[in-house]
Design goal:
With 357 residues, this protein is an alpha+beta fold. It is built from seven helices and 18 strands. The chain folds into two domains: 161 residues, 2-Layer Sandwich (D-amino Acid Aminotransferase, Chain A, domain 1); 172 residues, D-amino Acid Aminotransferase, Chain A, domain 2, CATH 3.20.10. The strands form two sheets. Strands 1, 2, 3, 4, 5, 6, 7, 8 and 18 form a nine-stranded mixed beta sheet that branches. Strands 9, 10, 11, 12, 13, 14, 15, 16 and 17 form a nine-stranded mixed beta sheet that branches. The structure holds 2-OXO-4-methylpentanoic acid (COI).
């Protein structure tokens, strides 16, 4: 039976920003979804309420032991004014996967989809229609029990907030990004939580990100924690290399995030009969391929970043600069195809989109 989601309407609607000043994650819509968990009631009282600050005890466990997970997906305004989501079930599945690894009680997937649909229906006017814009959806769960012993919390809050966004890196969506291969810090080790969308992974990445930025780079490329040799992922996206016509991406190994854009890229490449492989790839192999003239392209893929071509890759005092004007540019083809499907400009052969009615 469908659960009823209560709705309390705001009495103060906010002003919407023009598309060109959106940036990423700076503005929030009028309402949010919230649902609480406790041991006797389970997940209960789902509701949409005015977007507002939370009141939490300072002893809430999330502040001390970081039991927190999140997701990121988007709603798009199509050419004919409809609103649609891109593969929301994949995000909801991954949210529950994160719950399991972080000892958080799982959610009813149907209810989560219903909550997203109802919230977007209420906030439909917030879905922007400018070039490269969308409404970013951020579901997240935090541990709220007031307690200082180390164990999993007995109380949680699940929230969904919405943010109208433009490009993640600023400027043109296809602006090439400069990437620094990190050799001192590691992001995740096998058996840890690198494959889980938990907040601490991002906290642990900030220092390396700041140091890379100080050197003029946009993002860090992480290597494996054991040998400091194999490519894992970039701070906010999965990474792909095109070597002699084949697209190679690191295989999911328990420390890499299983990106939904990553899986869409792999599916599209197979559909187009482009050779593709998910395997271990060392940073040395990438640079060797470059010196042999066989490295044709590199790009990242993620919900926030969409498809981002790599302009420069720096490792161990060596630098690769990628030409962006190749006629066989696969990043541009992928970007266009994925965004055209998201915007309803191109047929959706995989039934990836879901209209919000
Ligand atoms: C996303 O792509 O949605 C992410 O969650 C990555 C980043 C913004 C944290």
């Amino acid at each position: 039976m469908k659960q009823v989601i209560d709705f309390v309407k705001t009495n103060r609607e906010k002003e919407k920003q023009p598309a060109e000043s959106l940036g990423f994650g700076k503005y929030f819509t009028d309402h949010m979804f919230v649902m609480d968990y406790d041991e006797t009631r389970g997940w209960h009282e789902p509701k949409v309420v005015p977007y507002q600050p939370l009141t939490l005890e300072p002893s809430s466990m999330v502040f001390h032991y970081g039991q927190a997970i999140f997701e990121g997906l988007k709603a798009y305004r199509t050419q004919d004014g409809k609103v649609q989501l891109f593969r929301p079930n994949k995000n909801i599945e991954r949210l529950n996967f994160s719950c399991q690894r972080m000892s958080i009680p799982t959610l009813d997937e149907e209810l989560v989809l219903d909550a997203i649909m109802q919230l977007i229906t209420i906030e439909k006017d917030w879905v922007p229609d400018g070039e490269g814009t969308s409404l970013y959806i951020r579901p997240f769960i935090i541990a709220t029990e007031p307690y200082l012993g180390v164990r999993s919390s007995k109380r949680y809050k699940f929230l969904i907030i919405l943010s109208p966004v433009g490009s993640y890196y600023g400027g043109d969506q296809l602006k090439p990004v400069k990437i620094y291969v990190e050799e001192n810090y590691v992001r995740a080790a096998k058996g840890g939580v690198g494959h889980v969308k938990t907040s601490g992974n991002y906290a642990a990445s900030l220092k390396a990100q700041e140091e890379a930025e100080a050197l003029g780079y946009d993002q860090v490329l992480w290597l494996d924690a054991k040998e400091n040799k194999y490519v894992e992922e970039v701070g906010s996206m999965n990474i792909f290399f095109k070597i002699k016509g084949e697209v190679v991406t690191p295989q999911l190994n328990g420390s890499i995030l299983s990106g939904i854009t990553r899986s869409s890229v792999l599916q599209l490449l197979e559909y187009w009969n482009v050779p593709v492989s998910e395997r271990k790839i060392s940073i040395e192999e990438v640079f060797d391929a470059y010196y042999r003239g066989e490295l044709e392209e590199a790009f990242g893929a993620g919900t926030a970043a969409v498809i981002s071509p790599v302009g420069e890759l720096s490792w161990n005092n060596q630098k690769i600069t990628f030409a962006q004007d190749r006629s066989d540019n696969i990043a541009k083809r992928l970007y266009e195809s994925i965004t055209n499907i998201q915007l309803g400009k191109e047929p959706d052969p995989f039934q990836w989109t879901l209209e919000v009615k």
